[in-house]
TrEMBL record:
Gene3D superfamilies: Regulator of chromosome condensation 1/beta-lactamase-inhibitor protein II (2.130.10.30). It comes from Dissostichus mawsoni (Antarctic cod). Residues 125-150 are annotated as: Disordered. RCC repeats lie at residues 379-428, 429-483, 484-572, 573-622, 624-675, 676-726, 727-779. This is E3 ubiquitin-protein ligase HERC1. The keyword Transmembrane helix does not apply. Keywords: Repeat. It holds the Pfam family RCC1. InterPro entries: RCC1/BLIP-II, Reg_chr_condens, Signaling_Regulatory_Domain. SUPFAM superfamilies: RCC1/BLIP-II. Residues 130-140 have a biased composition (Polar residues).
């Protein structure tokens, strides 16, 4: 009896797909590498070892041939039995050898990686709903709404009068300036000029008296007012020109008024326009001074006027910098300052403000009191809906039908609307509550209703980061602290408070156990021998070593209170649930309740959770996976049915999207995508589809919001709120208490409608309770918020990038000249200005990416900006400028890059077509090539290149104008069910050729130094770019994954691509092995050459990359590999010659034959007692490659010998084919054939 390797049961876990995608599949080339990955399979229980099968090798019972005479049939029977026994023994020995064990591990690991890739990135025939880009429709929608606005005859008359009056005023002012001044008694300026300047001076006084940012909210300014502002701005710009006819004072006053209007309008665009005007005017003045050598009062601005505007901007946004570092212009004795210095000072201030804001967006948690400036000192909170229990802190208990400013909530940072109650978190982490107090849900120590906000007490004292309160049942609340601890209070039925019982808790109580956090008390686990001792310690005793301690506390980053259950997510991505367990809502595989937080073992890498009435929704950290479980009635789980689900199950309809947030309500669920779209499923008005009776078993796009970029969602019991990027709030669902903010309580509201009364309010956060709603202006800390328009410093629109491009193009000329361009007095000032331009550009690119803004926001600026930045890279610019360019490119590469197809063409033109062209690439071309290769390594782009998914930038490319049509790129249209692989074929061919250039160069260096004791080549000169290798490997991996998962046939376009690629790669590998064998044979005495050769081969196309391909071909049908048989046969001889010259082949052959004596199949691997010596060990992978190639060749030949199954015609004529006539054919004698024919006739 002998034991075989036990069979394995495979069960891929969906939540581990992301982890497997990141694994390096090329590491399977080595036995130690594949052992690590195989151990991961076993540790995650995705591969479960089954009980070992016992193989009986006793053999057949044979007779005594000397004493017994056997018939021919008996002899044939015993012979067959003996051969079968020997074949079984041979199969057992061969399949359980060290090589076979490693091969089996390689195949299993590749299967797992291929499954993860296909599941994540391949469409698999699913029809996804078209995702519209909201930016492209917003402009036309606004114009359409404006055109529909009814205009009365009175409005028309007023507009005509205003336009006529402005035109007349401008004409009179110009005429007055152009006319020669009449003589005056004092000899001063004429009266006409004084009159003109007085008019502008009066306008300056009016603008200065306005509160800051009075003209910033253009939604509140009628179109006629905006048109007037545009006319005034155009007139004033003309006045600042030298040929305008205005005197020096008039031009100065016009500049001051322009700046005042720009600061009041608050948009970066207008400030950049003023800076552009100021620099142009200063350049003219500088040129005049150089030509005439005169000093005059040109190019100046009032110092006090400028500084007042600057200080007003600083006060409005605050300042995080030391005032001593602020730049201020030099004041003249006349109380003036240089227009040039004012422009630079303003530009520096704008850049500083943008940088400060960018930092707060990158790290919202760093935004503490006094650190990050806010536009207003207090938070504005608007409330509406039910006030039956004073949950809105208003004197009357009547429902509020439209948003009302609530002064009591003024210092709120975060607000949570629960079941007839409200919780307010202040910036210092304190919590106050109001509303219904039954079951102690307010945490104030009693069950009384609270009509005003009252502060909660937390013991021990903690700063609270977020609160979640249930929207139904009897009310309970969860809160987690800044340290990641969790408190709970309220109704304790079903154990939903997590304290190990069902008691009501009227004060906040810290949840012990796994959610206690990694601060304060912690569980101490000490191992002594086989015993484990657990202690609850505050401080580690001196006699205990730190390495013996395991901290079981978890830092919580998200909590959710459902109707009868609760959930929390740890920093490590673990999901804990507790409370009522019926319908499987806890996700533990049963209906049992838990009264303490219990880990959900079937998922990991969780980032967020939301609990509904009887179901739970979880979202992965990367936003690519949504799970749901619990009660499936009305389709609220989104799986296409109404079944209960007891363990987390992936919502397939959301695969392929990036989800930012999920919400679970009573009978419906919501999901927010990274592109700002909202999907809903379940039943009722919350679907937002126009019917209160509708049901959606799978997530469905809410069409009414398709052209709105949504940044946040919230769901109450049966109504929904969303917040758009431009601070508008939409609501729909149950409106019986006015909770939808429409000014009435009729309903339900079956489609999203804009909440009335919030126009012009910069709403940043929303919260929906059971029957009331809140919206407020404080910036959130739990999500990244990027304002498209931030006063003075941020404007995420094309005009900003256009101005910055104009600055760079205009002032980059002559960057290395001794004489900088006007108006810059020195190269230092010139370079500083360019650095500020690049810094502001970099900040805007970073903010656009952080806000999820599509690349279409750059409009027509992407290509010229990209070309400009790479031209700067190629120019001999100062180091500080080049560093700023590199930083800008690294930050905004994904936005500056062209669409996928154009990127492919650009890459093809940049990649060298010969080995000598690498040296000819400029620095800018090299960086551009590096950025493009890096961007293409994204698995989504690779899948798009291969035609397995829609292009990642498809919607953005297609939606480049207001009249776009959602027609697919013909490049990616699959024909006859097969994906188009043309682009991938070109790219793979180019990448392989370029890798070959590097390999040839490395071999040339080795052959040149083969007769030397010390190799003199520089590794940096011959090392290939990692991006080339990684991109080609990624393309191959996804191609093989698609072929494996989809069981492709030899007629598939993917198989055709695989054949074309391998018909180039396999001969290239054959050449590499031949050159290697010749090199080793010539320099067998030089050990350093052999060591260097190992590195060259392994990173070449014939190394780990080829190992992955050959092992993967074993997973595909034999018909796929058979056309490659000739190339595989050509590969074997040089590979065999090379291995025989290397030290690993002979010891491995001996070990393969001796392994049964040692009783283990892994004895040749590291860590076993019989591991190979180092020189031989480093070449084991190459011997394994040869054996795998030989096995693949054997499979191809075996398939050819076996032949195809018999056809129907052969089966029907089987009798005649077996007759002597047909079975012997023409090889028999004529006489014998005639005799057989006679016998047949008789």
């Amino acid at each position: 009896m002998a034991l075989m390797i036990p069979p394995v049961k495979l069960k891929w876990l969906e939540h581990l797909n992301s982890s497997w995608i990141t694994e390096d599949s090329e590491s399977i080339a080595t036995r130690e590498g594949v052992s690590v990955l195989y151990s991961k399979l076993l540790a995650n229980k995705e591969a479960v070892l089954l009980p070992q099968q016992v193989l009986c090798l006793k053999g057949p019972q044979l007779p005594d041939f000397e004493r017994e005479s056997l018939s021919s049939d008996e002899q044939e029977h015993y012979l067959d039995a003996l051969l079968s026994s020997q074949l079984a023994l041979a199969k057992m020995v061969c399949s359980d050898s060290p090589f076979a064990a490693a091969l089996r591990k390689r195949v299993l690991v590749l299967q797992r990686i291929f499954y993860a890739l296909s599941n994540k990135y391949h469409d698999k025939g699913k029809v996804k709903q078209q995702q519209h880009s909201p930016e492209n429709n917003s402009g036309s929608a606004d114009l359409h709404s404006v055109s529909e606005r009814p205009r009365s005859s009175t409005d028309a008359l007023i507009e005509m009068g205003v336009r006529t009056g402005l035109s007349l005023l401008f004409a009179l002012l110009r005429q007055s300036w152009m006319m020669p001044p009449p003589p005056s008694p004092g000899g001063g300026p004429g009266g006409n000029i004084n009159l003109c300047n007085d008019v502008i001076h009066t306008a300056i006084d009016v603008v200065s008296s306005l509160p800051p940012l009075s003209l910033a909210n253009e939604s509140k300014i009628p179109p006629m007012g905006l048109d007037c502002l545009a006319q005034v701005t155009t007139f004033l710009k003309g006045v600042t020109m030298q040929n305008s006819g205005a005197d020096i004072l008039g031009r100065r006053l016009a500049s001051e008024l322009l700046l005042g209007l720009a600061s009041q309008r608050g948009s970066l665009r207008y400030l950049l326009e003023w800076i552009e005007m100021a620099l142009a005017a200063s350049a003219v003045v500088s040129a005049m001074e150089e030509n005439k050598g005169l000093q005059n009062q040109e190019g100046l601005i009032g110092y006090d006027c400028f500084m007042n505007i600057l200080m007003q901007m600083r006060r409005s946004l605050g300042s995080s910098s030391d005032r001593s570092q602020w730049r201020e212009p030099t004041r003249t004795s006349d109380g003036l300052c240089s227009l040039y210095e004012a422009a630079l000072c303003l530009f520096e201030e704008v850049c500083r403000m943008a940088s400060d804001y960018s930092r707060t967006c990158v790290s919202p948690d760093s935004m503490q009191t006094g650190e990050a400036p806010v536009v207003s000192e207090t938070c504005e909170v608007y409330v509406w809906g039910s006030n039956s229990s004073h949950q809105l802190v208003e004197g009357t208990q009547e429902k509020i039908l439209q948003p009302k400013l609530a002064v009591s909530f003024a210092d709120a940072q975060t607000i949570e609307a629960g079941q007839y109650c409200t919780f307010v978190i202040s910036s210092d982490g304190s919590v106050r509550a109001c509303g219904k107090g039954s079951y102690g849900r307010l945490g104030l120590g009693d069950s009384n209703n609270q009509s005003t906000l009252k502060k909660l007490t937390f013991e021990p004292h903690r700063a609270i980061k977020k609160v979640s309160s249930s929207k139904g049942s009897d009310g309970h609340t969860l809160a987690f602290t800044t340290e990641g601890e969790v408190f709970s209070w309220g109704d304790g039925d079903y154990g939903k408070l997590g304290h190990g019982n069902s008691s009501t808790q009227k004060y906040p109580k810290l949840i012990q156990g796994p959610l206690q956090g990694k601060v304060g008390c912690s569980l101490l686990c000490i191992h002594f021998g086989n015993a484990v001792y657990v202690y609850l310690l505050v401080r580690l005793p001196a006699f205990i070593k730190h390495e013996d301690v395991c901290c079981y506390g978890q830092v919580v980053v998200c909590v959710s209170a459902g109707y009868r259950h609760s959930a929390a997510v740890s920093e490590d991505g673990e999901l804990y649930t507790w409370g009522e367990g019926d319908f499987g809502r806890l996700g533990h595989g049963d209906s049992n309740s838990r009264n303490i937080p219990t880990l959900v073992k079937d998922i990991s890498n969780v980032g967020e959770v939301s609990c509904g009435s009887s179901h739970t929704i979880a979202l992965s950290k990367d936003g690519r996976t949504v799970w749901s479980f619990g009660g499936g009635d009305n389709g609220k789980l989104g799986h296409g049915d109404t079944n209960r689900v007891y363990k987390p199950k992936v919502v397939e309809a959301l695969q392929g999207m990036f989800i930012r947030k999920v919400c679970a309500g009573s009978q419906s669920s919501l999901a927010l995508t990274s592109t700002g779209q909202v999907y809903a499923w379940g039943c009722g008005a919350c679907l937002g589809c126009g019917s209160s009776e509708a049901t959606a078993l799978r997530p469905k796009l809410i069409e009414e919001l398709a052209t709105t970029r949504v940044v946040d969602i919230s769901i109450g019991d049966s109504h929904c709120l969303v917040l758009s990027h431009d601070n508008e709030v939409y609501a729909w669902g149950n409106n019986s208490m006015g909770q939808c903010g429409q000014g009435n309580s009729t309903g339900p509201i079956t489609k999203p409608k804009k909440v009335v009364g919030l126009d012009g309010v910069a709403i940043q956060q929303i919260s929906a309770g059971t029957s009331h709603s809140l919206a407020w202006t404080a910036l959130p800390r739990d999500r990244q918020v990027v304002a498209w328009h931030r006063p003075y410093c941020v404007d995420l629109e094309e005009s900003t990038f256009s101005h910055l491009r104009s600055f760079l193009e205009r002032y980059c000329d002559g960057i290395n000249s001794e004489d900088p361009p006007l108006p810059f007095p020195s190269s230092r000032e010139h370079h500083n200005f360019l650095k500020l331009c690049l810094r502001l550009l970099s900040n805007h690119l970073a903010l656009a990416l952080a806000g999820g803004v599509a690349t279409s926001i750059l409009g027509r600026q992407a290509r010229p900006l990209r070309n400009l930045l790479f031209r700067l890279m190629d120019s001999s610019v100062p180091d500080e400028i080049q560093e700023a360019v590199i930083e800008t490119l690294s930050v905004g590469a994904t936005m500056l890059l062209p669409p996928l197809r154009e990127r492919m063409e650009l890459l093809h033109s940049l990649l060298p077509q010969g080995p000598d062209r690498w040296e000819s690439l400029s620095k800018g071309q090299r960086m551009q090539l590096d950025i493009i290769l890096t961007s293409l390594q994204d698995h989504t782009h690779v899948a798009s290149l291969l035609g397995y998914s829609s292009p990642a930038d498809g919607p953005e490319v297609l939606c480049s104008g207001p009249g776009f049509t959602a027609s697919p790129d013909p490049t990616y249209v699959a024909t006859a069910g097969h994906p188009d692989t043309h682009l991938a074929e070109i790219l793979m061919k180019t990448l392989l050729r370029n890798l070959g250039f590097y390999t040839d160069q490395a071999f040339g260096e080795l052959e040149k130094n083969s007769d030397k004791l010390q190799q003199g080549m520089s590794s940096s000169d011959s090392s290939q770019p990692a991006h080339l290798h990684q991109l080609l490997c990624s393309l191959q991996k996804q191609l093989l994954a698609y072929c494996h998962i989809n069981s492709v046939t030899e007629n598939s376009s993917s198989v055709a691509l695989l054949h074309k690629h391998l018909q180039l790669l396999l001969p290239h590998a054959t050449d590499i092995f031949s050159r290697s064998a010749a090199l080793i044979k010539e320099s067998s005495w030089n050990g350093s050459i052999r060591e260097k050769l190992q590195d060259v081969i392994y990173v070449s196309a014939a190394g780990s990359m080829l190992c992955q391909i050959i092992n993967s071909l074993l997973l595909l049908p034999v018909s796929v590999a058979r056309p490659l048989l000739s190339q595989l046969l050509d590969l074997l001889p040089p590979l065999d010659r090379l291995n025989r010259l290397l030290p690993a082949a002979s010891p491995l052959e001996d070990q393969e034959l001796q392994w049964p004596l040692h009783g283990t199949s892994d004895f040749a691997e590291p860590g076993s007692g019989m591991s190979l010596p180092q020189p031989a060990f480093s070449w084991v992978w190459l011997v394994d490659l040869e054996r795998t190639v030989a096995l693949l060749v054997g499979r191809c030949l075996g398939g050819m010998l076996q032949g195809a199954p018999t056809s129907l015609e052969e089966q029907d004529t089987a009798y005649w084919l077996k007759t002597p006539l047909f079975s012997n054919g023409l090889e028999v004698d004529i006489t014998q054939l005639g005799r057989e024919r006679t016998d047949t006739e008789l």
